[in-house]
Amino acid sequence: MKTFWIFAALFGIFAVVAALPAYSGEQKGDEAPVMEVQAPEEEPPVVEAPEESPERQSGSGSDSWGSKVGTNKPKEQINVIEAPYVCPDGQLLDHNGVCRDMW
């Protein structure tokens, strides 16, 4: 029964709002200034497409991408230590792969 009265109240509110005069927005000083856009007097120059060179006409797309994509072999790892991994007692392996005394 409560839901009936809730909907009845809402319906009444909407009926009152609908009966109010609508705001048209036409009041003094409410108009936005209108700017006129003038067309350019001169048309922009027409640029013709350059003629295609023979290099561009020959070959396929994969040929042209072959030079842009890296086809070189990957570089060797430079941080690999080529040294004995076990140092004598009292020494530790440094970043260059050399056994150094502990301090």
UniProtKB/TrEMBL annotation:
<feature type="region of interest" description="Disordered">
    <location>
        <begin position="28"/>
        <end position="73"/>
    </location>
</feature>
<feature type="signal peptide">
    <location>
        <begin position="1"/>
        <end position="19"/>
    </location>
</feature>
<protein>
    <recommendedName>
        <fullName>Secreted protein</fullName>
    </recommendedName>
</protein>
<feature type="compositionally biased region" description="Acidic residues">
    <location>
        <begin position="39"/>
        <end position="52"/>
    </location>
</feature>
<keyword id="KW-0732">Signal</keyword>
<feature type="compositionally biased region" description="Polar residues">
    <location>
        <begin position="56"/>
        <end position="65"/>
    </location>
</feature>
